[in-house]
Amino acid sequence: QVQLVESGGGLVQAGGSLRLSCAASGSGFSIYAMGWYRQAPGKQRAFVAAITSGGKPNYADSVKGRFTISRDSAKNTLYLQMNSLKPEDTAVYYCAALDPTGQWNYWGQGTQVTVSS
Question: What is the pLDDT of residues 31-67, one digit of tens each?
């Protein structure tokens, strides 16, 4: 079982940067793939980025070249560095972890990111 708590959201101007963190507690953090999803007002939750237990990243096309996902297994923490932010990046960002069956079944409570134009 894994518990996830996000932090680092806030209000930033377009072109600015934010770094989100996700602190994980519980057993087996290092063996899970982890990821970030986001949900904008009136839209479905969408994939942003993921990283395997071995550190291989994968990104949505909309954030490639601007966002960087990383993990520190020693600190049980997942990160999302977001650069060159755009107003369309405004959303609640959720940290997630794969369960042993390969489903995104562990979720944090979300952190709000607002990008002003």
Answer: 789 999 999 999 999 999 999 988 999 999 999 999 9
d(CA 50, CA 100): 16
Give me the percent of the chain exceeding a pLDDT of 90: 80
Vertex 77: Cα angle to 36 and 26 (nearest 5): 100
End-to-end CA distance of the chain: 40
Closest CA to 79 of 31, 32, 28, 19: 19
Cα 19 to Cα 4, 16, 62, 113: the distances in Å are 16, 11, 17, 10
